[in-house]
Amino acid sequence: MNKNKIYTMWFVVPAMLIFSIFFLIPLVTSLFYSLTVWDFKSYTFVGLDNFKMFFSERSLSTSLGHTLIYAFLTCGLKVILAFFIAIFLTSEIKSRNLLRSIVFFPNLVSTIAVGITFAALMHPTKGLLNQVLSVFGIGRIDWLGNSSLALYSVIFTDVWKGVGVATVIYIAGVQSIDRVYYEAASIDGANGWQQLRNITIPLVRPAMNSVIILSLIGGLRCFDLIWAMTGGGPGFATDVLASVVYKQYAAGYYGLSTAGNVIMFLLIAAIAYPLQQFLLRREEA
Amino acid sequence: MKLKRIMAMFLVGAMTVGTLAGCSSGSSTTGSQTAAAGNSETTGTSGEAKEFEGVTITFFKDTDFADEGINAVIALAEEKYGMNVEIEQRVGGADGDNIVKTRLASGDMADIMLYNSGSLLNALNPAEYFYGLNNEDFIQTYDETYQETVTVDGVTYGIPAASTQAGAFLYYKPDYEALGLEVPKTWAEFLSNCEQLKAAGRTAVIGTFGDSWTSQVIFLGDHYNILAAEPDFAREFEAGTTKYANTDAGVKSFQKLLDVRPYYNEDYLAATYDDGCDMIANGEGTHWAILTQALSNIYALYPEAMENIGVFGVPGEDADDAGLTVWMPSSYYINKNSENLDAVLAFMKLYISEEGLDAYAQVLKPDGPYCIQGYNLPADAYPAVKDDMQRFFDDEKTSVAIEFQTSVKGSNCPAICQEAGSGQTTAGQAASAYDEDCKKQAVQLGLDW
Fold first, then answer.
1. A2 pLDDT band (50/70/90 cuts)?
2. Is the pLDDT higher at B363 or at A212?
3. Which of A240, B92, B109, B195 could be a cystine partner for B62, CB 3.0 to 4.6 Å?
4. Packed helices B354-363 and B341-352: angle between N→C axes, nearest 10 degrees
5. Residue among B231, B248, B394, B226 nearest B314 (CA)
């Protein structure tokens, strides 16, 4: 017995070493530096001032709201849209494999490339979207310039890109449901919609939980798409936590941006951990 | 079995080597490391050896700064000294700042880098990274005001990259002639000009918020008028005793951003700096608030358009005190740890010598008067500079921009100006937002606000 235990411990050591050097130690030191004003050479201890500034200054605190809107909207849209696309793609249609590849394709492209492309498509005068709309007689929409619309345009692009992964996870979930249930239900006279509601949705719950957790955490951390499309603009309308942290870092306020990172870490932990507990409990039941 | 063991060992070895290779220095852009002397060929060999034959020096600049002038001086240096100069480009704006700071901090900077003077230089901690020029003779030729902006704690670091420039309104002269308008001396006159232009179906003001730094120019260019009302504003602002939000002239500066909103082009939030150059050169818009370095960019693309473009400073309240807010040029800073210091110094000396300035001016005319004493505007300078801007300098109606008077400049200024310019905030809100933003910079600098 003892021999086995020593054997397994040694295998963990290399991984633990890399993990602690690149994750644990920086985590602890960033908790420390977030309490300072820092310029890489020296630091001045200021306590919770950085955090206070984060919550009181308008440009920084609005980003918290935007982050939550972004995360929950993208998560919700992906969960719902991907589910219906997955149902469609697991039914008996001829071009099933081709359609699956097409749906998954946006996920393979670099996020920055997607961002730049969509920013060009959404250009108010030269962009393709507005040109198509004007053919139909609808007036020009300022997708990324209208401050109330800009965040939703970026959310739309994020959903376009991310729905592929969610669909694939759902497809796996739907395919794992035993055919027996459907046969029994159709013998009992249930129609398609009733089968969907009473068999598919409850049994695809593990896949749905994965999609929810992954897209929520991804949405809370999203940076590259927003930066490529609007740079946080116009003004501060599409700033999220990650882009604000990046801006503070670029400006040289290293202590403040570390504080932002700590807030992001705490926010994600506070949302994701209880959510996961909740979803897992429902799954078991 | 033995084969499996050998395979396993081999794979472990390959994995380790692969990881180590991935961990090595990551910068892969060309010409970014200071090259060892003697590893490149020079062109145009003559019989005798030139002083710096075979030396390559590296140059790091942003894409908003026109290349043609630098290339002319490089050609001169290659001919005279036999050295090879490699230019590496970076983006401008906030992303560019980030790249510069990161590369300096990681010790990965080129021999010479181009960067702003003034407060932005302070933020880079120049004593740590740049070669001090106090012992060089050529700094004696510097204009005093310029020298102050590249001196930190008594040590001068910078070499002027170009002439001075102004943050002002470029205007398309044919439109003014067509409608019989006069160059405005007050802000109210300016707005009424815009109104008439709009009524005639023209785009009165060009907005290029796609490049967010351009949205600040009206606000920053108004600094002359703030100083006219409050001469000690910069010093008091740095000390924290006055703010934009509780100074009339300060709030008015932000108000100007809102006043021009009805006159912008339709795609002002997405149009870029390059679009703006195109528009003003082709007369698709009448006014453009921009730094006059744009004149060089326009000249490089549309040389025949230069006689149609004029310049006036951001108008204030007083018709008799219409002034110009001047920017000191960006400067070159020499990497302290450069391996080719002698070659670099020779190149820089050539750059600001009369020979070098002549070579530069042949290709790109100045965007304002020079910072080198004794070197005057050439006879074929842009009409905008020679006729319009020189007048302000002669009448002494100029002041430097605030970033050259104090190192407290908020990093979110472009975004705040964008917000005001797109109508999301009022002038008062924008002013207080900017004050709060500057507080972060003050805290970082250790000032007590």
1. low
2. A212
3. B92
4. 70
5. B226
- Give the distance from residue A269's alpha carbon to the nearest chain B alpha carbon, in angstroms: 28
* Residues B247, B127 share a domain: no
Whether A19 is in a domain gets the answer no
Residue of A nearest to B104 (CA): A40
Query: What is the structure's pLDDT at B375?
Result: 81
Question: Looking at residue A61, which CATH number applies to its domain?
Answer: 1.10.3720.10
Residue A68 lies in a domain: yes
CATH number reported for the structural domain that contains residue B393 in this entry: 3.40.190.10
Structure tokens at B220: 């920053």
Where b means 16+ CB within 10 Å and e means fewer, B3-28 reads eeeeeeeeeeeeeeeeeeeeeeeeee
Contact between A250 and B105 using a beta-carbon 8 Å cutoff: no
- Span A119-171, pLDDT tens digits: 999 998 888 999 999 899 888 888 888 888 999 999 999 999 999 999 999 99
Q: Is residue B77 part of a domain?
A: yes
Q: Find residue B167's DSSP bridge partners.
A: B291, B325
| B219 shares its domain with B274 | yes
Task: State which residues form the domain around A163.
Answer: 46-284
Q: Mark whether B159 and B183 lie in a shared domain.
A: no
> CB-based contacts of B141: which residues, under 8 Å, 6+ apart?
B352, B372, B373, B374
Contact of A225 with A106, CB cutoff 8 Å: no
Global confidence as pTM: 0.81
Q: ipTM, 2 decimals?
A: 0.81
Q: How far apart are CA B33 and CA B38, in angstroms?
A: 14
Number of domains in chain B: 2
Which residues form the domain of B198? 165-327+382-445
Residue B122 counted as domain residue: yes
Number of domains chain A contains: 1
Residue ranges of A 86-145 with Cβ closer than 8 A to chain B: 123-126, 140, 142, 144-145
Tens digits of residue pLDDT in B223-282: 999 999 988 898 899 888 899 998 999 999 999 999 999 999 988 988 999 999 999 999
Does the pLDDT at position A285 exceed 70?
no
- Please indicate whether, in this complex, the C-beta atoms of A247 and B411 are within 8 angstroms of each other: yes
Looking at CA atoms only, how far is residue A50 from chain B in angstroms? 9
Q: Is the domain of B116 the same as that of B202?
A: no
Same domain (yes/no): B79, B201:
no
CA distance B268 to chain A (A): 9
| Same domain? B402 vs B288 | yes
- Residues of A with CB below 8 A from B418's CB? 233-235
CA-based radius of gyration for chain A: 23
Q: In this predicted structure, what is the pLDDT of residue B23?
A: 67
The answer to whether the CB of B307 falls within 8 A of the CB of B383 is yes
Tens digit of each residue's pLDDT (9 = 90 or more) over A55-90: 888 877 889 999 999 999 999 999 999 999 999 998
User: What values do phi and psi take at B116, rounded to 5?
Assistant: -65, 160
Q: Three-state DSSP class for B66?
A: coil
Enumerate residues 6+ apart whose C-beta is below 8 A from A77.
A155, A159, A163
The answer to whether the CB atoms of B437 and A59 lie below 8 A apart is yes
Q: B441: which chain A residues are within 8 Å (Cβ-Cβ)?
A: 251, 253
